[in-house]
Fold this sequence. Notes:
Mean pLDDT: 77
Helix content: 25-40%
Structural class: alpha+beta
Number of helices: 5
Shape: elongated
Largest sheet: 3 strands, antiparallel
Distance between the termini: 65 Å
Radius of gyration: 36 Å
Amino acid sequence: MSNYNDDCRFTVDCHILPQITGALPSSFINIDNIPIPSGISLADPSFNTPSAIDILVEAEILRSILRNNSIDLGKNQPKLYETKLGWLVSGFVARHKPHSSSFVCNFINEGANPVLHRFPKLNTIAAKHFLSPEERTCKQRSQKRTRHKDDGRFVVSMPLKKEPSVLDDSIQKTKCRFISLECKFPRTPVFINRCVQTCENLNA
């Protein structure tokens, strides 16, 4: 992206669309009534003539090209803003048509761009969630096997995809590991201290 003088260039990532919007402005603007100072180099010299939009840039790029200078052209007149690409004309424009009025509606045709068409769907929560076969099985087992104990606690069985036999003899292996740790504690006092500290922290 560059200005008319080709002395200012920017590199931007673009999405190619068949059409951004309709011709802007919607009708011809007579700039004879706009007191644009002489010597001002406009970024778009033909801003008053309806034409197709070539590129739509994000606000971050606009902030990076804006400069500090601006010119207020007066009441019921637009303002001029200096940018690295030239001066921009923005704001109110009086239309001297006392016996007629027009209404403008700008819109984007979502059908022209499937990416834009997906945005509303991505932000919409489905009215009903369809459970997968595994989720349905897990839900049914939880409803059937959940028990409420006398002390107020709930007991829920662990949902396994396969039979518990696939775990092999895990209880025996766990006991062996526990006995091994018990034998190691007397030989390593630091383990005993850490165990005591952990128990105290849990009971605190």
